[in-house]
């Protein structure tokens, strides 16, 4: 990410992978995806959210089907997100549909 002067600015990426429970309906998966994207509307520290469904040909996804990448300016922004009431409501909504979640945070280039 670059600022207005073109100087590189570090960001923090929060990568979330979901493995949905067997039998979870497409409608429920769509509801979870939409609610995840709606986090940006309710949490100021979220700079962006990207997502997609797995299309890997390597067959190494271990049942994880959906990936979300959340961008923050820094770790304190991520920490605000993790404890924010809007995020906690999302966890309650998504939780019953998830068999497993995997989360990895990183700073690009480090």
Question: What can you see in these coordinates?
Answer:
- The chain has 110 residues and is α+β, with helices and mostly antiparallel strands.
- Helix content is 33%, strand content 28%.
- It contains three helices and four strands.
- It has helices at residues 26-42, 75-83, 85-94, and strands at 12-20, 48-53, 66-72, 98-106.
- A four-stranded antiparallel sheet has the order 2-3-1-4.
- The longest helix has 17 residues, at 26-42.
Question: What's the quick description here?
Answer:
By secondary structure, the protein is an alpha+beta fold. The protein has helices at residues 26-42, 75-83, 85-94, and strands spanning 12-20, 48-53, 66-72, 98-106. It has three helices and four strands, in the order E-H-E-E-H-H-E.
Helical residues, percent: 25-40%
**What is the SS-derived class?**
alpha+beta
Shape: globular
Order of helices and strands: EHEEHHE
Backbone CA Rg? 15 Å
Uncertain stretches: none
Layout of helices and strands:
Layout: E1 12-20, H1 26-42, E2 48-53, E3 66-72, H2 75-83, H3 85-94, E4 98-106
Antiparallel strand pairs: 1-3, 1-4, 2-3
Q: What distinguishing features does this structure have?
A:
single chain; 110 residues; alpha+beta; four-stranded antiparallel sheet; 3 helices; 4 strands; 33% helix
């Amino acid at each position: 990410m670059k600022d207005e002067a073109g100087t590189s600015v570090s960001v923090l990426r929060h990568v979330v992978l979901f493995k949905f429970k067997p039998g979870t309906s497409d409608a429920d998966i769509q509801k979870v995806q939409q609610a995840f994207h709606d986090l940006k509307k309710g949490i100021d520290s979220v700079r962006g959210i990207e997502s997609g469904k797995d299309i890997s040909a390597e067959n190494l996804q271990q049942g994880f089907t959906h990936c979300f990448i959340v961008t923050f300016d820094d770790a304190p922004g991520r920490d605000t997100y993790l404890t924010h009431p809007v995020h906690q409501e999302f966890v309650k909504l998504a939780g019953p549909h998830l068999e497993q979640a995997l989360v990895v945070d990183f700073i690009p280039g480090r």
